[in-house]
Amino acid sequence: MGIFSDNRQKEEEAADLFMAKMAILSVQKTEQRLLRARTENLDNELIMETGARVIGYMRHSEEDMSPNDNSLHMQRAKLERTFNLAALNAKRAAIYQMRARQEVSDETLAKIVSELDVLETLIMDSR
Fold first, then answer.
1. Burial class of 113 by CB neighbour count within 10 A (0 to 12, 13 to 18, 19+)
2. Exposed, middle or buried: residue 55 (CB in 10 Å: 0-12, 13-18, 19+)?
3. What are the distances in angstroms from CA 85 to CA 34, 73, 110, 125?
4. C-beta separation of 99 from 109 below 8 A
5. So where are the chain's domains?
6. Is the pTM value of this prediction over 0.70?
């Protein structure tokens, strides 16, 4: 990689790290707001569990972005793309099977396939 590519990559990693930290803070604040608000009619355990799961994912991403272990981040990102594409392809095959059995209309098929196409583009562009 050239010096400009290295600088850009470091800049992107710093931005990703900062965004992850801000996302964690936002989730924590939202979690506290939901715990205090009785109007939401949500179970406190469910709020805590869901918040912890989201924060855990963010922290996991944050750890992957440490400057000391960029290779782990790259490997995990590649694996996530691979798994996401496999899941997406399975969804695409399933909706076509449903259409073949006339369980969904042409309109539903078109809508879902269009959504899957957008997701596939996003996954492929994340390389």
1. middle
2. middle
3. 34, 18, 19, 12
4. yes
5. 1-65, 70-127
6. no
